[in-house]
Amino acid sequence: MILSTGSFTISPLLKIDHVHLRVSNLQESVNFYQSILGFEVLIKKPNDNTALLISAPNNDEKNISLPLLALTELNGNNNRVSSSNKIKTEAGLYHFAILLPERKFLAMFLRHITNNLDSKYHEGMADHGVSESIYIHDPDFNGIEIYRDRSPSEWKWNNNNKVYMVTNALNIEDVLSHNEKDSWSGLPSNTSIGHVHLHVSNLLKAKRFYQNTLGLYHTASYPGAYFFAADSYHHHVATNTWIGANISPADYNHNKPGLDHYAIILPNVDELNRLRNHFIKSEIFIDETILESDIQYPSSFYTYDPDRIKVQFLYK
């Protein structure tokens, strides 16, 4: 399949590495992500305001488990997002998506939250054609999608090289029947962050950045939303204007719960440097200031999309 983008095309091996959230109460959030999602704590230092979370530790010493999620507590105790002011009015996270490796894990997770998660955290479920998804939110109303992909051989692409995605009702009975015995015991070791979905103020500006500047393919359109990916995945990044086009830029002053940044991983230092040089030639601002709370990797750097949403680029 031949997809088209701008003059620069990013590595087809690109993946979403991790997501870094700001939360109002670190211990409450850690408890939620452990008990409901099944993350395990990799690092949570005493008197520190950041925790790094992983899926099930990998017993292979050559393949060390690395963080999928970072949580940083905001200063002060008056930052809790209540149900009365949960409506977002600025660019940032719609949801981040946890990709499970097999459908059986989705069945186990669905049964788990049905029995153990207060309904106030439930957002819904959907069959998107390419995938099956469950939606919830955390105590700060950060959106979370938990999903499994269908085989790429089952995905449908039209003549314009756009992947066919829909929002249909999830066949709950069929999902549950796929695994009726096993119980949820946490995220499997090969869990990943499959994609991020963002609130933006302007779809065309977002497209110019994610397609023309970053070099992703525009893989699908939906009313009020565009989807972008490396290679022939359905999407690594999605953008929408579902809360309006007059929203404020992302909260880069870090005084509210929400998305601090998300990270994109490239396969090697050569690809990272190729992207860095492309940004420099394109006069895209590069921020190489790594804060102590950030997950640090050699030569990583940041930039910002048109809505000031912060993106980290790295290799391992």
Keyphrases for this structure?
single chain, 316 residues, alpha+beta, 2,3-Dihydroxybiphenyl 1,2-Dioxygenase, domain 1, eight-stranded mixed β-sheet, seven-stranded mixed β-sheet, 5 helices, globular
Query: Considering the protein shown, what is the CATH homologous superfamily?
Result: 2,3-Dihydroxybiphenyl 1,2-Dioxygenase, domain 1
Give unreliable regions as ranges.
Answer: none
Q: Roughly how much helix do the residues carry, as a percent range?
A: 10-25%
- The CATH topology is given as 2,3-Dihydroxybiphenyl 1,2-Dioxygenase, domain 1
Instruction: Give the beta-strand count.
Output: 15
Looking at the structure, what is the overall shape?
globular
Amino-to-carboxy terminus distance = 29 Å
**Widest sheet, order of strands:** 6-7-8-5-9-12-11-10
Order of SSEs, N→C? Answer: EHEEEEHEEEHEHEEEEHEE
Class in CATH?
Alpha Beta
Structure classification: alpha+beta
The appropriate CATH architecture is Roll
What is the C-alpha radius of gyration, as a whole number of Å?
19 Å
Describe the main β-sheet briefly: 8 strands, mixed
Q: What is the helix tally?
A: 5
How much of the polypeptide forms β-strand, as a percent range? 25-35%
What is the total number of structural domains?
Answer: 1
